[in-house]
Each structure stands twice: as C-alpha cells, then as structure tokens.
C-alpha cells in the first residue's frame, strides 16, 4: 500500500541512482509518528534509511536536519566519537519529499538507564563535549544560527514573561526565574557549537557506548548548557556523572554551566504551558501546571540547587530590560 516499506524502497531507488535494494524493514511505527520510515539493505551490504514526513511540522524538521547534516563535513565527523547520518539522496512524493540517508544503528536510552549505568552516562558526557569542541567556523559558513549570550538571555526572559502572563506560574517559580534573569554572571559564557535538541530520542547507544546522534535540525552556535538540560529530568546522580565526564573531556570551562542547564530545564515546563495555551488544550495546560507545582516542591527541598551563580553579581530589573532592548535593536 502507499507509504509502505516497499513503496519507500522503490522511492529510494529513484532518490539514489544505481541503488539496488535487497531487503527492507519498517523503521519505527508504521501507523503513527511524524514520519513513514524504512531501513533498506543494498546489494553492496550497506544499510540506508528513508523517511517521508507525514505533516508540515515533520517536513520543516526534516529540512532543517538536512541542512545541518550536510554542513557536517567528513572532516568535522572525524572529530566526533559517534556516527551521524549522511545524506544520500531525495525524491518527491506527493506534496513533499522523501530523504535517504545512511542508517545509524542503536537504541534510545532512558533517563533511568543513565542513572543505573554510570558507563553510559560517562559516554553521554563525552559525546556532548565532543560536539561543543567542534570548530565554530563550519556553523557560520553554513549560515546556521549564531546566538550571543544576550540573545540566549532574551529568549529565556521572553519564555518567562509569556508564561507568567498566563497567571498560572506559581509565585515561587516566578521569583526564582526572575532572580536567574537578573544574575549577570550566570549569562556570561562563550557560545559553542550546540546540537540544540539533545535528548533520549536523539541519542543512540549500544551497550554503554553512544554510537550515534540524530536530530541535528537545531545545530547552531549557542549556550552549551542547553545540551545538558535534558539529563536533569532524571536523577541528580546521573547529571553529576554526565557533567563530570563532560568536564573531563574538555567541556565545562564555564563555572555557571550547571546552573544555566537548570534554568533551561525548568523553563521547559513554561514552554509546555505556553504550548497548551496556544493549542487550547486544557489537558496540556493542567499537566504543565501540575509539573510546575511539583517543581516548586523540588526546589524547596533542602538538597535543591540554586539557579543563581555561586557569587552573583546582579543587575536590577531595569538594567536587564535596557540590556535586552539594546540587544534587540542591535540584532533586529
């Protein structure tokens, strides 16, 4: 039937001239998800993947991912301790297109597995550090986004302000987030190459080793802390292990990295709230509010880590607003 693994296999032969497919299997769910995907075995013994987006959101994500993986040259890839899919070809189908890449094997880890397997957490920290040490020039040469610390702060403040405007953010979180926004020292960092959407769905592992990383559509220069924030959704000891490995492999020269990672992690609840408001989903809004109240309980625990820098040099709210205003004019 249309969209089946066999249709995709036939489409791949159009996308990649000379390709002879000798076997195929479904990749992911055949009935749900944003993509119709298949894994293909070719006559030379290689393995490819083909993905056809099912909606405009997936199409936009695939297009961004394609730009990024084509920017990751062979020389850049040699600096990474894991595999990245390589572009092989594309073919139109209906109103969209199917993209063929090399297939990167592996399984997605869970946050629980990072806590239970320190070796895996160490491999994750090493993988993130490798991305952050890539030369920045290839990102700018590819025309990918390049965010300054001021722009990262401005984006965070925008999320905070829009979430607070819903009047659903607990007062304790509002105060905590505003304190982080006022902390000038917290936002002093050197932008690095960042993956931009690291998480369990983008990481592939075999045993305790990270073997591949997917989903490069948010590749840019930005805040390295953002690539570590997702680990904070699991146990704190897992984050500590990831961070230690990250620092041991050349990352984390900025002392406020862990605190900013916590800011990005906590603001994910605000973004989930804003998504619920945008799509008018009471279920999502209620879930986000419940998450924020659980977060309040967590940050009030005696062992909770602060968001502010260790020796904060704070600005007044007016100074922050003036800073953001001048930055907006400069980059507008």
TrEMBL record:
<feature type="domain" description="Aminoglycoside phosphotransferase">
    <location>
        <begin position="31"/>
        <end position="254"/>
    </location>
</feature>
<protein>
    <recommendedName>
        <fullName>Aminoglycoside phosphotransferase domain-containing protein</fullName>
    </recommendedName>
</protein>
<dbReference type="InterPro" id="IPR002575">
    <property type="entry name" value="Aminoglycoside_PTrfase"/>
</dbReference>
<dbReference type="InterPro" id="IPR011009">
    <property type="entry name" value="Kinase-like_dom_sf"/>
</dbReference>
<dbReference type="Pfam" id="PF01636">
    <property type="entry name" value="APH"/>
</dbReference>
């Amino acid at each position: 039937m249309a969209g089946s693994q066999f249709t995709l296999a036939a489409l791949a032969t159009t996308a990649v001239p000379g390709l002879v497919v000798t076997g195929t299997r479904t990749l992911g769910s055949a009935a749900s998800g944003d993509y119709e995907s298949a894994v293909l075995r070719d006559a030379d013994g290689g393995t490819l993947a083909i993905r056809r987006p099912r909606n405009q959101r997936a199409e936009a994500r695939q297009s961004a991912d394609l730009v990024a993986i084509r920017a990751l040259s062979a020389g850049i890839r040699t600096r990474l301790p894991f595999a990245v899919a390589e572009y092989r070809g594309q073919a139109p189908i209906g109103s969209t297109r199917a993209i063929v890449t090399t297939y990167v094997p592996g399984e997605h880890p869970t946050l629980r597995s990072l806590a239970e397997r320190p070796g895996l957490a160490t491999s994750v920290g090493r993988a993130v550090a490798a991305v952050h040490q890539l030369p920045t020039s290839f990102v700018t040469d590819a025309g990918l986004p390049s965010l300054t610390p001021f722009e990262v702060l401005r984006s965070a403040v925008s999320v905070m302000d829009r979430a607070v405007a819903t009047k659903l953010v607990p007062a304790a979180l509002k105060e905590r987030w505003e304190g982080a926004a006022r902390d000038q020292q917290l936002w002093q960092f050197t932008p690095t190459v960042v993956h931009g959407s690291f998480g369990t769905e983008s990481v592939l592992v075999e045993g305790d080793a990270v073997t591949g990383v997917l989903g490069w559509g948010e590749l840019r220069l930005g805040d390295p802390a953002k690539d570590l924030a997702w680990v904070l959704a699991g146990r704190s000891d897992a984050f500590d292990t990831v961070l230690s490995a990250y620092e041991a492999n050349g990352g984390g020269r900025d002392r406020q990295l862990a605190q900013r990672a916590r800011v990005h992690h906590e603001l994910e609840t605000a973004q989930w709230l804003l998504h619920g408001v945008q799509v008018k989903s009471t279920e999502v809004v209620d879930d986000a509010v419940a998450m924020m109240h659980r977060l309040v309980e967590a940050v009030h625990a005696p062992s909770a880590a602060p968001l502010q820098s260790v020796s904060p040099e704070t600005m007044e709210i007016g100074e922050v607003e003036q800073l953001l205003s001048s930055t907006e004019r400069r980059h507008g």
